[in-house]
Amino acid sequence: MSLPRAYVEHVAIRVPNVDRHVDFFREVLGLTIRDEQAADGPRPRQVWVLGSVQLIEDPSFVGPEGRLAHLGIMVDDYEGVLARAAAWGAKALPAGPNWLELPGGLNVEILQASAGAVEAALAINPRA
C-alpha cells in the first residue's frame, strides 16, 4: 500500500485585529490577500494571505496560548486519508468529515488537491 502525499496548505491563527496583521504581511513581506470572508453571525471575519496563513479575527484574543486554530493540509488521496485518519483514532468534527480532531486535540482540515498539485508543492526546495 502506498501512502498519500500531502503538504500543509495553510495555518489558521487567531488574531485580535486582522487588518493590522494583513498590513504586516503586505507591507513587510509583499504578500497579498488570497481570499476574505466577512463576519457572519457567530462566524468571525477571516482572511487568507497568499503564502499559507489564515487569520481569524478574535478581538478578545490575548494569546499566545490558543492562537493556533487548525492546520489545512492538501492531500492527493482525500478518501484514503480520511479512512486512515479514522482508523488511527482521529474524530470528525461538526464542521464536516474533512475536519478532524487528532488525539491530543490538534485540529486539521483535509483538502483534496488538484491533480499534480501536491507533487509540485513538494518539489519546491525552500532552501534554494
From TrEMBL:
InterPro entries: Glyas_Bleomycin-R_OHBP_Dase (IPR029068), Glyoxalase_6 (IPR041581), VOC_core (IPR037523)
Domain of life: Bacteria
Pfam families documented for this protein: Glyoxalase_6
Lineage of the species this protein comes from: Bacteria, Pseudomonadati, Pseudomonadota, Alphaproteobacteria, Hyphomicrobiales
VOC domain boundaries: 7-125
SUPFAM superfamilies reported in the protein's UniProt record: Glyoxalase/Bleomycin resistance protein/Dihydroxybiphenyl dioxygenase
Protein name per its UniProtKB record: VOC family protein
